[in-house]
Design brief:
Number of strands: 8
CATH architecture: Alpha-Beta Barrel
CATH topology: TIM Barrel
Bound molecules: iron/sulfur cluster
Distance between the termini: 33 Å
Structural class: alpha/beta
Radius of gyration: 17 Å
Strand content: 15-25%
Number of helices: 8
Length: 241
């Protein structure tokens, strides 16, 4: 069977064995991050809609489980992320419930946080077990440089949405920060990030730096010693992944 929405399973240190589920057949995103592993966002979109038929996604997942019973049993997570931003798909809440009915494993959502200012998006994610939102910058200039957002996206709405979601959500919240050398890793910026993170109060802070092929050239990872320094500034919840 040709898989359109499923990728993996992938074994990672942070999630264990995880099956990825993309909520769009191609890259649909409202950011155009310089470090994106899927290449540049050809057309940045900010409208939420049904970018993929949920029945088609569920049918594919059912077949995969039927054809891979042993692996399916060993899964720790089904992770909704994939090519682009999963919360752009208006069916995400419905899909979380339907995936829940098909498997005993936990459900994770990886999101770029841009739509968390929308109460409908926050409500749709409440049934997940783990949400991994990203926040690369708290400074408008740095945000525009690293994440190159759709013009309709406002950084202050992302931050207030993240804070609101952390108060409403009962599952685990792991905040991810992608650090790019010379872009968002300045100590002054890290201190500003720390203040916002204090208000979000995630369960974990995961520090990442690009290792795969990136959308733009010369997107450099932050050296290990600097990552360690940043981890120390951000405190006990921070880890380098
Ligand atoms: S949010 Fe994710 S998918 Fe979208 S451009 Fe950034 S890294 Fe790529």
């Amino acid at each position: 069977m040709v898989l359109k929405y499923i990728y993996g399973p992938i074994k990672s240190r942070r999630l264990g064995l995880s099956l990825g589920l993309s909520l769009s057949p191609g890259k649909i995103c409202n950011l155009n991050c310089i470090y994106c592993q899927w290449g540049r966002t050809v057309e940045s979109v900010c409208v939420r809609k049904e970018y993929a038929d949920p029945d088609e996604i569920i049918t594919e997942l059912k077949s995969w489980i039927r054809e891979n019973p042993k692996t399916a049993k060993g899964l720790k997570f089904v992770t909704l992320s994939g090519l682009g931003e999963p919360t752009l798909n208006t069916q995400i809440g419905n899909l979380i419930s339907r995936v829940r009915g098909l498997t005993d494993c936990s459900i994770a959502v990886i999101t770029n946080s841009t739509l968390l200012g929308d109460p409908c998006v926050r409500k749709a994610l409440l049934e997940a077990d783990l949400v991994v939102p990203s926040l690369d910058a708290v400074d408008e200039k740095i945000f525009r440089r690293i994440d190159r957002p759709h013009r309709g996206i406002k950084l202050d709405e992302i931050i207030s949405g993240l804070i609101a979601f952390s108060k409403e959500f009962r599952g685990k919240l792991w905040l991810e920060i992608m650090l790019v050398s010379g872009v968002n890793d300045g100590i002054g910026h890290i201190n500003k990030l720390k203040e916002v993170i204090r208000r979000v109060n995630p369960d974990k802070i995961q520090l990442n730096s690009p290792v795969r092929k990136t959308a733009e050239e010369n997107v450099l990872p932050v050296p290990r010693a600097k990552l360690e320094k940043i981890k120390k500034i951000l405190g006990d919840k921070a880890e380098i992944i």
